Amino acid sequence: MRTYPLPMVPGPVSVPAEIRKVYQTDYGSGDLEPEFFELYSTTETHLKTIFGTHNSVVIQSGEAMLTLWGALKSCLSPADRVLAIGTGVFGRGIGDMAASLGAEVRTINWKDDETIGNLDRVEEAVKRFKPKMITAVHCETPSGTLNPLSDLGKLKDDLHVPLLYVDAVSSVGGAPVRADHNHIDLCLGGSQKCLSCPPSICFLSVSDAAWEIIDQVSYQGYDALKPFRSAQKNKFFPYTPDWYGLAALNAATLRILHEGLTDCFERHQGVAAFCREKLTRMGLTLFPSASAIPSPTVTAVNVPSGQTWPEFDARLRHYGLVVGGSLGPMENKVFRLGHMGSQADMDLVKKSLMIIEKVLNKL
Question: Going from the N-terminus, what domains does the chain have, and what CATH number goes with each?
Fold first, then answer.
């Protein structure tokens, strides 16, 4: 299998040596050892800081989709109403997930190259539809956009919607999420993006209001949230925990906190701005519209005119650079550079852009 010296895909990202090293340690049983519970509690505290929340944080064993499904299943009963905010593939997809569980779903759509704007349609829908939950995506990775959440959270709070569910998988650790400020009840994250870990751990913050609903629904399953409400107190988790994954996540949170959240967010913003500017100077066009908010963790670019995505991808790989294609309506039309976590590195981005420019000059 060929390896590439410059993997710049938008997750899973390159895992730093200090995090890989954690996996070389043998651990005891997470079911039995007090050290595991201490590590879980410490990591939870770190995640609270990164999320910007005082709410409890649940850490689960599994890739981020586990917690996206688990939060829906734990909070929704058949016929519950869900208002999905769709600005891209994942925003609309969460609505589809809720519908598959028997929820009644309505979706407020923006174009894939846009971010959440005027909320008049959302306000009208909330007043008429009276949803139990609003869902949104912070970073729409396929589109390279970052949705503003403050006004949406205020609207949710003012209109007394019970739950706001936000997928922050591709933003947490790379951009301010401000879960409490934005009135987020279920804020969802994963280990393989800005945290720079393998895709083995997921986590979410859970508000008191969400816990009450979780208790009422009482969903049972591997991805259920309810058992985690008392897991630390009772020293009993619903399945054998991934101690290796938790230790890696703890190392990743420490890495961010030692850098400082403000510096970490500025690093991502600086790399992203540099990346967009250089790509534009090369004559490439960015996918997000001029009025949209571009993501600090991933840049989406239109495939050069006259090139198919497979052809362009093969040319980049020839020089050792791997970027990501895109999904849904953007498939084969857009490619993406993932400058998140360990890849939010100016030297890596400069090397990547040099290869892209070299390929463009040869077309």
Answer: 6-13+261-362 (3.90.1150.10), 17-258 (3.40.640.10)
